[in-house]
Amino acid sequence: MDHFDRMLPREIKLLVFRTLLEIWKGNEEEGLKKSERWIGEVGGRRELIKISRVSKSWLSLVFDGELWSTLSARSYANLPPLHPGQTTPSLSNLFLPSNVVNMATVSVHTNTLHVIASHAGPFLRSLDLRNLTSLSSSTMHKIALAASSAPLESARRSFEDGNGGHPGTLRLGLDQKEGVTRLTKLDLAGCRSFSGGAVNHLLAKSPFLRKVNLRALPVVTNATCDILYLNCPHLIALDLSRSLNVDSSGVSLLTGQASSQLLFQSSPPRPMKELRLAGLSNIDDDFMSALARGMPSLQILDLSGCKSLTDDHILAFITPDPDPSSSNPTIALTSKEMGRDPASSTIYFKRLTSLRHLNVSGCSRLTDVAFSHLAFAVPRLEFLEAAGFGTRLRDEGLTRLLATTEGIRKIDLEGASEVTDGVLGVLTPEGDEEGGTGWSLEHLVLSYCGRLTAEAMLRLVRGCRRLRVLEVDNTKISDQVVKEFVRLSTSRRILGAEIAVTDSRNLTKQAMTDLHHRHTRPRSGWRGFSALPFAYQDADLDPDLLPRGPGRSEVDLTRVVLKSFWGWGLVDETRIQVASARKKKAALAAVLASSGGDGGPSRSLTTVTGGRRLLGWRSSSGSGVVMLDGVASSSTTPPLGGGTPPSSQQQQQQGQGGQVGGAGTPGSMGNVNFSSSSHLDGFFSLYF
After folding, report:
1. Treating both helix axes as pointing N-terminal to C-terminal, what angle do 196-204 and 222-231 enclose, rounded to 10 degrees?
2. Is it true that 247-405 and 409-507 share their CATH fold?
3. Are 51 and 75 within 8 A, CB to CB?
4. Beta partners for 684?
5. What is 247-405's CATH number, 3.30.420.40, 2.70.98.40, 3.30.360.10, 3.80.10.10?
6. Exposure class string for 600-622: b at 16+ Cβ within 10 A, else e
7. Which residue blocks in 238-348 are alpha helix, DSSP H?
8. Structure confidence at residue 682 (pLDDT)
9. Alpha helices (H) in 464-564, listed in sequence order
10. Rounded to whole angstroms, how far apart are CA atoms 357 and 304?
11. Distance between CA 180 and CA 433 in Å, rounded?
12. DSSP 8-state symbol, 66
């Protein structure tokens, strides 16, 4: 009798399947060590799909909405197509139906997504379709329709219950009985086959979205921004990077501060915390001012690659509102703090922002004046990315900003060729007391900053106790700085420490080779299926294969990563040694397997490396001869294989060229001559 189907209530059955997912999540670390592809929650949901074939009742249980509050298909993107003539999908093409033949790079079948969305519609909270280029607009419309099964009022109450009772003020004009989705997270990055209408339809049906990723979608336009503003008032994270059909006027609609919006009503500030607008065009003062007014809670702002961004636009961003009734906080500064005449008694005001992460890399019209404007306006700043400035970035503005950001954790100044030791002086803490700029510094990129001296770098390494990553390619760094970084990172027990010194001319081969052979690893490796193409060496998986010393393990977080010119040669050298050891191990296993004949089971042998030739023999009686480079010694060993042992007279002929048996006797093998074919059964020959 099938007790599971007949006796257990449906709730218990769902609990069993949910426990299956939890078990897969708990075994994720073990799957990473084995470099398995399907691990964690992805592997668990894959197993659910497979067991849905058991029966119709199991199919109903597997696709129950309570098990599919999260639907992530990104792991199945860009899988290889079915082989020609293959009528049954392989395990890697799990979602493909069995009657599909010769499909081109389709990783997730549309019917499967539709089935899951239709069953999980009222429960679906997160939808991730990143890089699923095969999905069509009709599929998106079906998913939106299937997921829009909850009436607006019912969905609103569910959303408030899951968000601490915060109500949603929707102005989208939907009927209270009209179906909407309960999605709070949506990722469509890379879905280039969707039409603009399909994307906008799903957004209009999802009033509770909090995180949306529409990166690099050509169908996203300024109209999409307007739909997001009208229909998604709870949005806190949005990525519109590299969306070529969106400009600053469209993003202004998201702030609620556009001129067309202010004519009709005064819009409250949006709760946006993360906004990524890399490559945005047509930036002006009005846009930056609207961004600051409409999104006062903004913590992450990505404006990298914005060619139209200038210093004046940064000034507009931190200029306070002229309206005295504005609730946005400001800070009062003296003339000296503003970098002007210290004797002046004029008081200046700046807008206090909530920015923690600012990315302006690749903004070709910015200079260090922009950073001078930001001084005192971003006191919570932790991540500053300003790569690719070249000669436009100098010490004055940068030091003024860094002196007011005590919590800075990461700075990227790659290519700032005019930056000098003054910047490093500001970042170097004084004394042992906690606090101050540089105390929290963990990641510093100074590659191609040619005016920095090794002495200033040494003081920085010694003073910044939390420094974990230091990238100083093509600089004047010395052997002493590298050795000190490796020593301090080890003594401070900093996991994942890394230093990059490629193309630094003042380094010597002897010092770098010595570090590579004792304290470091040449690459920062990781475990998992995605790491297989890089062939990282992992001592925990097979310690017998790795050579002792250099390159012992590239996934050991306790060893410092040292990226240098000589380190890449060490990677190739280690790879060759491991491949050679693997071949030797396989050859030995094959010989031992073939020798387990009438003399009993095969036994392991003690092998000797170092390029020498190992000759050995074991008989069923236990006596035998082991020869190494022509030197023989008698031994008594456990039975391994059959054959006739050589006589004691033959063993004594070890001084005559290492030959066992008379010269010219038949059955010659290498430098060992066998007097009869029966001797051949008891010998083995391996080369190391």
Report:
1. 10
2. yes
3. no
4. 616
5. 3.80.10.10
6. eebeebeeeeeeebbbbbbbbee
7. 248-255, 259-262, 285-294, 311-318
8. 40
9. 479-491, 509-518
10. 12
11. 55
12. G
Most confident segment among 68-77, 188-197, 251-260, 465-474: 465-474
Rounded to whole angstroms, how far apart are CA atoms 216 and 131? 11
How do residues 113-123 score in pLDDT, each as one tens digit?
777 777 777 78
Residues 6+ apart with CB under 8 A from 581: 544, 545, 546, 547
Q: Where are the domains of the chain?
A: 3-79+103-162, 247-405, 409-507, 520-594, 598-687
Q: Give the pLDDT score at 612.
A: 41
Distance CA 42, CA 75 (A): 7
- Beta strand pairing status for 672-673 and 668-669? antiparallel
Tokens encoding 486: 């490796």
Residue with tokens 């420094």: 467
- Alpha-carbon distance of 607 to 588, in angstroms, equals 9
Closest CA to 547 of 524, 513, 570, 523: 570
Residue appearing with tokens 């040292």:
562
Joined together, the tokens standing for residue 174 give 């939907």
In contact, 158 and 125? CB cutoff 8 Å:
no
- Structure tokens, 528: 């998992």
CA distances from 207 to 153, 234, 235 (A): 11, 8, 9
Structure tokens at 203: 């957004």
Helices (H), 52-188: 56-62, 110-120, 137-147, 152-162
Tokens (6 digits) for 654 = 């070890």
Q: Which residues contact 74 (CB under 8 A, 6 or more apart)?
A: 128, 129, 130, 131, 132, 187
d(CA 102, CA 89): 10
Between 408 and 166, the higher pLDDT residue: 408
Q: In Å, what is the CA distance from 539 to each residue of 549, 554, 578, 579, 599?
A: 11, 8, 11, 14, 36
Residue 673 pLDDT > 50, yes or no? no
Phi/psi at 402 (5° precision): -65, -30
Give, rounded to a whole angstrom, the gap between the first and last alpha carbons of the chain. Answer: 61
Report in angstroms the alpha-carbon separations of 341 from 280, 314, 347, 646.
36, 22, 12, 102
Find, among 44, 10, 47, 4, the residue nearest to 25 by Cα: 44
Q: List the Cα angle 405/407/410 in 5-degree steps.
A: 95
Q: Quickly name the fold that domain 409-507 has.
A: 3.80.10
In contact, 614 and 688? CB cutoff 8 Å: yes
Residue that the structure tokens 């019209």 belong to: 365
Residue pair 282/310 in contact (Cβ under 8 Å)? The answer is no
In angstroms, rounded to a whole number, what is the distance separating the alpha carbons of residues 599 and 595? 8
Q: Among 239, 434, 277, which Cα is nearest to 363's? A: 277
Whole-number Å distance between alpha carbons of 274 and 58: 41
Of the candidates 283, 281, 203, the residue with the CA atom closest to the CA atom of residue 235: 203
Secondary element (H or E) of residue 445 = strand 443-445
Query: Nearest-CA neighbor of 252 among 270, 231, 234?
Result: 270
Q: How far is CA 648 from CA 354, 666, 675, in A?
A: 89, 19, 14
Taking the C-alpha atoms of residue 620 and residue 395, their distance in angstroms, rounded to an integer, is 81
Residue-wise pLDDT for 63-115, tens only, equals 888 898 888 887 776 554 433 333 333 333 444 333 333 333 334 556 677 77
**Angle separating helix axes 137-147 and 196-204, nearest 10 degrees:** 10
* Alpha-carbon gap, residue 546 to 531, rounded angstroms: 18
Spatial separation of the C-alpha atoms in residues 188 and 128, rounded to whole Å? 7
